[in-house]
Amino acid sequence: MNQITASASKLARTLTFDDNALLSILLGDHDRNLARIEQRLGVRLACRGNRVSITGETHRVEAAEIALSTLYHRLMRGETIGVADVDAAARLADPAAEPRLPLSDLPAIRTRKGVVGPRSPGQTAYINLLSGHEMVFAIGPAGTGKTYLAVAQAVAMLGSGRVDRIVLSRPAVEAGERLGFMPGDMKEKVDPYLRPLYDALQDLMPGDQMTRRMTAGEIEIAPLAFMRGRTLSHAFVILDEAQNTTPVQMKMFLTRMGEGTHMVVTGDLSQVDLPAGTRSGLADALETLEGVSGIGVARFAVNDVVRHPLVARIVEAYDQRAYAAEERQREQ
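Predicted structure:
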């Protein structure tokens, strides 16, 4: 039962939890989970016995209650929670979060290794786009889950038989796409550039299944430079680091799309590694295609970064410096 005490602008609410063992897990070692929720939502939390009191501005108290209740119900269902889950619950319950959905109604991607749910408002919108569009562009800073969620959707669709294979592609800018000069076979040449995609696959798919599917060609490595002239049908195709494509390469890639195929293009326009003066194919595609029927665009912001909180502050610091430099150029 909840107890509520209100003042002019403050609210005090007490939550009572029936299972002390689950409550101990919810609190975390030395109450570290409570401390994280306090920091993220700007409230005061205190636990006595099986009760947790929440004090703060009304909308923040309500957000903290939602976060705590969501995490507790996950534990009741036998799920585990970690630091990332606590941060995600607080981020999604934040009154400033958009889009605002009840946490029980959030979309999810279901793979054989478990359910992958959103950990930020931007991820919520992205998962909805992945399920409702055949072509999706995901734009934003590092650490926002653009690639991971795309791979999760690909694994889910392959596992359910909605596609016959997964095709992974990434421009090898550092090698100038001239992979023939690099030692080893094709897989060895492109592995360093596709490592993030492999890591996501390994996290989302049992290792023996991943090896078997790669051997059978159901998971294919397709360097961007070697996709010309192909038609990809009944496949889930991911182009990662797309900011490092040229407009010609991007058009070539997008027009490989065949019957029953889903495409996801991910990139960060603040990290273009192309030669000076070369226009990014990702920027060109967005300018040309945004608004075209059937194409979805997910835009992530700093508050969608779901890695270590320091990553968000690093991204924000670089963004601020770039903005200041642009302002100085305008003034000159």
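Summary: DSSP finds eleven helices and twelve strands in the chain.
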